[in-house]
Each structure stands twice: as structure tokens, then as C-alpha cells.
């Protein structure tokens, strides 16, 4: 199944993350970014509706937001019950890479669940890994 992706964040985080993704994995043409609350940008609802209007029956939409409980996630939640729409709050770069590069034949829910587990392992207090910092 094909997938479309949206990264929605406060400020310019979404476009900054897209820049990092393109440096690491290349073209992210299937990704839309929403830099919320910045001067001159469209509303979150408008951006979401534009992507949802083009969503084909054989496509999933995965929406990444920066903060669980934040205003962006709250606005996106109105789409949470739509078929084939998946919302992931609290993204990091490792999570995005794994999900964007996942086999499109694997169900989105399965990809997201595995990527969340792997992303949690990527967050480490590195000093605690050094024996002299016990």
C-alpha cells in the first residue's frame, strides 16, 4: 500500500527535519510539512485537508506531530478515526527514517509499532554508557 506523510510541528521544526531526512535518505517528495504558527503559513487544517483530499483508496496517511497533548496534535486528532489515517506524536529522526523507508507492503500499523519501539531505544543518556560515569 502506498503511503503519504505529513510532519506538523510548532515553528520551523518540520521543514528542518525534512531537510535532515533529505540529506540522509534522499527525496522526500511524498512528505508534506506544516510549520505551524509561523508568519504567513497556512493553517494546519488547510494543509491536512489538502493532503486528505488527494488521498487515494489504496493509500495510508501517516501524520507525525511534535508533542503529544500539544495544540497541533489536538487539531490533527479530528482525523484519527478516519480509515487509513495514522497519527504519531513525539517523533524523532530515527523514527521518521524507519517509517519512511519501510516496506510499503507491510501494514502501516505494524511498521509504526515496530518503529516506535526502535526509536525509544535510540534515546539514551550516553554518559551512562561510559563506565567512568556510573
Automatic annotation (TrEMBL):
Pfam families, alphabetized: EIIA-man (PF03610)
GO molecular function: transferase activity
GO terms (BP aspect): phosphoenolpyruvate-dependent sugar phosphotransferase system
GO cellular component terms attached to this protein's record: membrane
Domain of life the protein comes from: Bacteria
Keywords in alphabetical order: Transferase
Domain PTS EIIA type-4 stretches: 2-123
PANTHER family per record: PTS PERMEASE-RELATED-RELATED (PTHR33799), PTS SYSTEM MANNOSE-SPECIFIC EIIAB COMPONENT-RELATED (PTHR33799:SF1)
Name of the protein described by the UniProt record: PTS EIIA type-4 domain-containing protein
Organism of origin: Chitinophaga parva
